[in-house]
């Protein structure tokens, strides 16, 4: 069971107090009406599923009920950092690893993810 | 014949406290301090099980958690039955009742025994797959026969009378194992001021020190152990957990410990005491001092009772005062194996021979054996054992230098006990639990804990260190390191002096060759519990299973409840040899939690019976119970379902409740509806973004119904929201959806629109809601308030703050039944007093309490949806015919707008909600029924949609249904058919879902 | 009976939020969430010694305040109304006389006051508090349970995953966390005394749970 540092409560709590809320930094398009069906579908449904570093949104559901972000290694379960909504991660894959990852996973280009990162504020 | 193998003196048993126990219906005696296994051996019980596949007699092999054979069923009564108890770990108590589980009808006369003796090849490796796979329909038959014959034990058929619980612990240093390394590590950490937990699976601390005759500081080792335990007990922040197995090591230094608190006292826990407790520990640092398990050697007929491991022989003699036989042959690949022979001769029984697989060995223990004139046979091995239910003799032959071949002639020796030692396997199980891969070490001849991400230290036997002096030093080092890591200063700990033994190098040998090839030699068992032989592993390799994981699954090696603690390394060695690889090249399988079997009770803890799941009650719950209501689960809420009177059937109750509402007045406890208080100047804007309809103009004092959609445009919740103040709203949600809706509002506020000034607060529990509905509801309300509640002063969809029955209330004039209704909300502390006043005053108006089922019928008569019943995540507002609840005038693209305008959402042929009126008015279409256009069409018949809500309407005198039909809104008047499982077909006409009072006049009077 | 406590729409609009005196006259007795358990009878009939002591502090005024901890004007207003300031540090509480405030989240606090004062304090807040905030009377939605005694820490360790060692959980600390399969806001009020704010609808479950888990220590009901 993960031991998670809540950046709002400023202490470690057990995983059962939290809910995972999916991939972090998925910003709602500012003008949904301007999105094509494909763009909207990508915003709604397409998510990364990396082996390794992943940026995730969590909520301290049984505690302060605040959402926050986490950089987590999906393979080792190591939590690299937690940071507040609106902040950017300090732990990111090196460009080389990102490239390797994008070749491993389904065509990254169809996912609009990167240009949205950090836009959530 | 009483305890013929018991020594007159010695051991840690208390001869002044004799205990009686039962094994397979026969009574025996033992002593306090015995394990069930030591008492059985004292009484000369040889056969404790029949083997899994071949049904061969099996005896006790080991003295601890690694025991594969003596796995018994315990329990004096049906309710206290416990399967899968290792006799080597069960402390003896007076009145203990045990039975063997393998063997049918009994271990001594076994019908399955024929399989083993006559047809040894009837169950080759992979036998499940080859034999029992087809036909699949017969699997349940196979399974019951296999289980009965193999005897995996059984669960009690009655309710377990004992209490189990779980407890959460936190510490700086968690020490696993209280042998010499663990004790020193714990002592060091404790002296440094750390919060320490030290756990050991045995009843007393000391580990291997309790099994031997070693001296520390010139005194018996147990005296040193006692001093350490006494000091540990003086620290407030140190917790000592004997009888506690650390069963799991999980991510982020989280450990689960299975503590058996009363299993050693009696069949059942003393009154009010907890039988077993699961400790869930979060440790800053973990010290694994788990020691090592001795490996038996693999030779022909090595499973005949009387074949043991040497360490177990020493443990039974030294700790329990039991010599498990008369004439001993030791076979060893290392110096430590000699200790069993020395202990045996000290106990006054005959050591027939010590067979050393090495040509030359000159360690201190060998010299001691020589000095005593024991018969040492170097460069040789026991290749085969004679005997059936007990060893009667052994065949000894010379080995070549690398142990791969028999050379020279075979000598037969008479003996009843064979103790073997193939070296020691570090107990790396816990380290593996967190995903760390173990690493082979040629010097240790075993796997060591591999690199890990956990804050983990290891000390002693788990590192392949078996010399007490080194083990103690490693314990000290681990303790000091842990102190430094948690920010505490190093402390002084003086280690006891121990005699250092001169040890000769062990030989790396696992599988003893036979004169015949392995496939033809008498069975050489690798894994006793799953009956895997060396020949079986060779076959698996020959059949193409090269990865060790596949060999394991194909042969079932390590699949028993002992997880292959004794056999796995030997099996890997056999596979390596067959594949012509080294052991590290072959690799190892890893271990998962739990280390030893654990009672389900300890996992469940208190979460059973009444505490299995929280039951949420409203303030009026007690009244509903007293009125004989039946309850429906809505989320965790218990809601009154219906209130039967006398001998009413459910339908009769519903008919009565429905008619009461339509003709007089009914009362419903609606407190469970989710309620969210919303404040802030942007509250109105926020509502407009999360609801599909418009909120800009809702005036203070007014209520409005809203639909909530996901970004995909699909409806997921609905409810009425009231404007309490210009910047103040009260939102209601479905009873089951409240928590989700609250989180939905928060996630959008926190992550998307933090600039909006709005705050949300859950007030579901704060307000109690009594809904009175029906033509008499106004008359009833008038009796309890001075406020003018006439239609002129209190309009439909208004809310008023008034006093009801003397209690300040917010009353909402909204309706889910189509009747004139008032939802009376009071602070929940006053919910019951107001409810009781309503019931009292309502009597003359024909007030009838009704439950959720009547509520469902009444709302269906009106065509009102229930989200989650009439919606399933694939339905948008237009599909529901609720386009009136969608505003496209709002400037902000509210949640759901873009989604419901996707091409798939606006296409033709979507399933739309309609009413369905059966041609036979008495027929109620079962919910979930599928509509077809032509009941005679050939299969597969195209399906047009399903029934989502369907009831008998007593008010209308016919059945009603809501359901989905492709383009249904354009097919009013058409006929559809619902084929039933029994071959009949229900015919229905598509109609408006509003069956009752289509103009909505009744709610607006 | 009268409807004088009714706030007119105009008055409500003036304050932008609806404030309501929710209490009836004293002849009507409120029923706390554990009313049905009849703790008074249990207290008189039950054992007087045991490792766990249990008491319900019923019918208190519970006010949930959400505001901006960085707004000095708001902080000053709170102090003016309650005579005690908002605890700004996470997981802390402040207390003065009958008034106590618990940190719930960076923008949320739970204020407990005597039951009869809730409306008066709410009204004062509406007069004093500037800026964007919300104040909600949640008195009916929860109750306060006090657990004490020599085994209280062990009992709570079975229910919550929180580290209760005095070094990690000093007197005055407050956490919102799990309690068995429910939740609670828990504050330490003494070395061996804790205050649990629990939701009304879950209170019977928690009460059952405490009784079951106290069996081995002995449960003393106080009322």
TrEMBL record, chain A:
* Skewed-composition ranges (Polar residues): 95-121
Quick one: where's region Disordered? 93-121
Which Pfam family would be a valid example here? SoxD
Q: The organism sits in which domain of life? A: Bacteria
Bilayer-crossing regions: none
Q: Which InterPro entries match?
A: SoxD, SoxD_sf
- Protein name, please? Sarcosine oxidase subunit delta
Native source organism of the sequence: Marinomonas colpomeniae
From TrEMBL, chain B:
Instruction: Check the record and name the InterPro entries matching this protein.
Output: 2Fe-2S-bd_N, FAD/NAD-bd_sf, FAD/NAD-binding_dom, GcvT/YgfZ/DmdA, GcvT/YgfZ_C, GcvT_C, GCVT_N, Sarcosine_oxidase_asu
Q: Where is the FAD/NAD(P)-binding domain?
A: 172-429
Q: Which residues form a coiled coil?
A: none
Domain Aminomethyltransferase C-terminal, by residue range, is 911-997
Top-rank lineage group of the source organism: Bacteria
Query: Domain SoxA A3, which positions?
Result: 522-603
The record's annotation in Pfam families points to: Fer2_4, GCV_T, GCV_T_C, Pyr_redox_2, SO_alpha_A3
Regions that span the bilayer: none
Residue span, GCVT N-terminal domain: 620-890
Keyword annotations? Aminotransferase, Oxidoreductase, Transferase
By sequence similarity, the record places it as follows: Belongs to the GcvT family.
Q: What is this protein called?
A: Sarcosine oxidase subunit alpha family protein
Instruction: Record the organism.
Output: Marinomonas colpomeniae
From TrEMBL, chain C:
Cited SUPFAM superfamilies: Folate-binding domain
Which InterPro entries does the protein's record reference?
A: SoxG (IPR007375), TrmE/GcvT-like (IPR027266)
One Pfam family named in its UniProt record: SoxG
Identify the taxonomic lineage of the organism of origin.
Bacteria, Pseudomonadati, Pseudomonadota, Gammaproteobacteria, Oceanospirillales
Q: From which organism does this entry originate? A: Marinomonas colpomeniae
According to UniProt, the name of this protein is Sarcosine oxidase subunit gamma
């Amino acid at each position: 069971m993960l031991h998670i540092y809540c950046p709002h409560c400023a202490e470690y709590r057990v995983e059962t107090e939290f809910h995972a809320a999916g991939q972090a930094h998925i910003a709602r398009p500012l003008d949904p009406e301007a999105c094509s069906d494909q763009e909207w579908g990508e915003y709604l449904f397409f998510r990364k599923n990396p082996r390794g570093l992943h940026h995730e949104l969590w909520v301290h559901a049984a505690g302060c009920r605040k959402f926050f972000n986490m950089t987590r290694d999906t393979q080792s379960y190591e939590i690299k950092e937690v940071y507040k909504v609106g902040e950017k991660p300090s732990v990111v894959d090196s460009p080389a690893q990102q490239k390797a990852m994008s070749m491993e996973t389904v065509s990254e280009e169809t996912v609009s993810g990167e240009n949205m990162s950090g836009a959530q504020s | 014949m009483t305890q013929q193998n018991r020594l007159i003196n010695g051991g840690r048993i208390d001869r002044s406290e004799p205990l009686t126990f039962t094994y397979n219906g026969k009574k025996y005696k033992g002593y306090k301090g015995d394990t069930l296994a030591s008492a059985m051996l004292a009484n000369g019980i040889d056969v404790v099980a029949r083997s899994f596949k071949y049904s061969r007699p099996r005896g006790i092999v080991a003295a601890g958690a690694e025991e594969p054979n003596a796995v018994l069923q315990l329990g004096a009564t049906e309710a206290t039955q416990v399967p899968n108890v290792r006799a080597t770990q069960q402390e003896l108590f007076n009145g203990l009742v045990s039975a063997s589980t393998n063997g049918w009808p009994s271990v001594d006369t076994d019908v399955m025994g024929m399989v083993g003796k006559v047809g040894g090849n009837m169950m080759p490796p992979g036998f499940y797959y080859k034999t029992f796979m087809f036909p699949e329909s017969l699997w349940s038959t196979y399974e019951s026969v296999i289980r009965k014959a193999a005897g995996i034990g059984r669960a009690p058929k009655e309710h377990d009378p004992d209490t189990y619980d779980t407890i959460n612990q936190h510490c700086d240093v968690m020490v696993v194992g209280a042998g010499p390394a663990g004790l020193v590590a714990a002592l060091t950490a404790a002296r440094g001021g750390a919060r320490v937990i030290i756990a050991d699976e045995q009843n007393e601390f000391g580990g291997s020190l309790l099994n031997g005759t070693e001296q520390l500081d010139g005194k018996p080792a147990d005296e040193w152990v006692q001093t350490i335990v006494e000091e540990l007990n003086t620290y407030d922040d140190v917790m000592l957990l004997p009888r506690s197995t650390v069963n799991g090591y999980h991510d982020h230094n989280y450990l689960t410990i299975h503590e058996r608190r009363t299993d050693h006292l009696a069949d059942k826990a003393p009154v009010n005491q907890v039988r077993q407790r699961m400790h869930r520990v979060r440790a800053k640092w973990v010290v694994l001092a788990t020691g090592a398990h001795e490996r038996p050697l693999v030779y022909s007929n090595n499973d005949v009772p009387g074949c043991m491991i040497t360490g177990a022989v020493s443990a039974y003699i030294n700790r329990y005062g039991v010599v498990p036989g008369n004439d001993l042959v030791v076979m060893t690949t290392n110096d430590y194996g000699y200790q069993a022979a020395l202990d045996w001769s000290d106990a006054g029984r005959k050591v027939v021979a010590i067979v050393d697989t090495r040509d030359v060995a000159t360690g201190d223990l060998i010299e001691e054996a020589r000095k005593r004139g024991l018969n040492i046979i170097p460069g040789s091995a026991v290749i085969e054992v004679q005997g059936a239910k007990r060893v009667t003799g052994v065949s000894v032959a010379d080995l070549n230098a690398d142990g791969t071949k028999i050379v020279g002639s075979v000598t037969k020796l008479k003996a009843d006990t064979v103790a073997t030692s193939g070296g020691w396997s570090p107990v790396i199980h816990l380290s593996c639990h967190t995903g760390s891969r173990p690493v082979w070490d040629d010097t240790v001849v075993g796997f060591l804990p591999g690199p890990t991400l956990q804050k983990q230290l290891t000390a002693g036997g788990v590192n392949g260190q078996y010399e007490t002096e080194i083990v103690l030093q490693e314990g000290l080092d681990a303790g000091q390191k842990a102190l430094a890591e948690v920010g505490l200063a190093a402390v002084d700990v003086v280690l006891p002096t121990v005699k250092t033994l001169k040890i000769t190098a062990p030989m790396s040998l696992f599988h003893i060759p036979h004169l015949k090839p392995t496939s033809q030699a008498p069975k050489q068992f690798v894994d006793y519990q799953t009956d895997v032989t060396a020949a079986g592993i060779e076959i698996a390799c020959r059949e193409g299973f090269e990865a060790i994981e596949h060999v394991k699954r194909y042969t079932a090696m390590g699949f028993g409840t002992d997880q292959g603690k004794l056999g796995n390394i030997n099996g890997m060695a056999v596979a390596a040899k067959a594949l012509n690889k080294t052991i590290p090249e072959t690799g190892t399988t890893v271990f998962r939690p739990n280390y030893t079997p654990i009672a389900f009770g300890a996992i469940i803890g208190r979460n059973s019976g009444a505490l299995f799941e929280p039951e949420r009650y409203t303030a009026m719950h007690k009244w509903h119970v007293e009125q004989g209501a039946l309850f429906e689960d809505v989320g965790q809420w218990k809601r009154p379902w219906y209130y039967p009177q006398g001998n009413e059937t459910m339908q009769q109750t519903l008919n009565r409740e429905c008619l009461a509402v339509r003709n007089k007045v009914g009362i419903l406890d609606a407190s469970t509806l989710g309620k969210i208080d919303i404040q802030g100047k942007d509250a109105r804007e926020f509502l407009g973004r999360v609801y599909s309809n418009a909120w800009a103009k809702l005036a203070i004092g007014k209520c409005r119904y809203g639909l909530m959609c996901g970004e995909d445009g699909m409806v997921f919740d609905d409810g009425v929201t009231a404007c309490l103040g210009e910047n103040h709203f009260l939102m209601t949600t479905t009873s089951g959806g409240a928590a989700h809706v609250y989180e939905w509002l928060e996630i959008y506020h926190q992550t998307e629109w933090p600039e909006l000034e709005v705050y949300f607060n859950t007030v579901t529990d704060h307000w109690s809601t009594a809904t009175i509905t029906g033509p008499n509801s106004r008359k009833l309300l008038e009796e309890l308030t001075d406020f003018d509640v006439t239609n002129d002063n209190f309009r439909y969809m208004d809310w008023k703050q008034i006093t009801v029955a003397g209690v300040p209330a917010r009353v909402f004039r909204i309706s889910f039944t189509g009747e004139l209704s008032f939802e009376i909300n009071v602070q929940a502390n006053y919910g019951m007093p107001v409810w009781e006043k309503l019931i009292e005053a309502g009597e003359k108006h024909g007030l009838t309490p009704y439950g959720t089922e009547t509520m469902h019928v009444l709302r269906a008569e009106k065509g009102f949806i229930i989200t989650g019943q009439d919606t399933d995540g694939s339905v948008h507002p237009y599909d529901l015919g609720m386009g009136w609840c969608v505003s496209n005038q709002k400037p902000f693209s509210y949640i759901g707008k873009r989604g419901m305008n996707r091409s798939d959402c606006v296409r033709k042929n979507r399933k739309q909600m309609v009413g369905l009126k059966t041609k036979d008015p008495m027929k109620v279409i079962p919910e979930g029924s599928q509509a077809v256009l032509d009941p005679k069409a050939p299969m597969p018949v195209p399906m047009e949609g399903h029934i989502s809500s369907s009831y008998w309407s007593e008010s209308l005198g016919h059945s009603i249904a809501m359901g989905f039909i492709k383009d249904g809104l354009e097919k009013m008047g058409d006929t559809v058919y619902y084929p039933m499982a029994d071959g009949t077909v229900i015919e229905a006409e598509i109609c408006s879902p509003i069956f009752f009072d289509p103009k909505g006049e009744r709610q607006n009077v | 009976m009268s409807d004088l406590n009714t706030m007119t729409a105009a008055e409500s609009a003036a304050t932008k939020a609806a404030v309501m005196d929710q209490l009836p006259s004293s002849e009507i007795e409120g029923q706390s969430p554990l009313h049905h358990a009849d703790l008074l009878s249990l207290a008189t009939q039950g054992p007087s010694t045991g490792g766990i002591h249990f008491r319900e502090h019923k019918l208190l005024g519970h006010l949930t305040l959400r505001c901006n901890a960085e707004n000095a004007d708001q902080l000053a207003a709170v102090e003016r109304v309650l005579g005690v300031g908002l605890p700004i540090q996470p997981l802390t509480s402040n207390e003065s006389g009958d008034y106590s405030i618990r940190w719930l989240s960076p923008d949320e606090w739970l204020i407990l006051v005597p039951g009869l004062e809730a409306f008066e304090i709410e009204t004062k807040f509406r007069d004093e508090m500037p800026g964007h905030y919300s104040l909600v009377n949640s008195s009916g939605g929860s109750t306060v349970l006090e657990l004490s005694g020599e085994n209280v820490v062990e009992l709570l360790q079975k229910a919550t995953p929180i580290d209760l060692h005095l070094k990690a959980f000093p007197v005055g600390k407050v956490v919102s966390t799990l309690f068995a399969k429910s939740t609670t806001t828990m504050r330490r009020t003494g070395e061996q005394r804790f205050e649990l704010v629990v939701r009304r609808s879950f209170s019977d479950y928690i009460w059952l749970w405490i009784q079951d888990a106290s069996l081995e220590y002995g449960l003393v009901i106080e009322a």
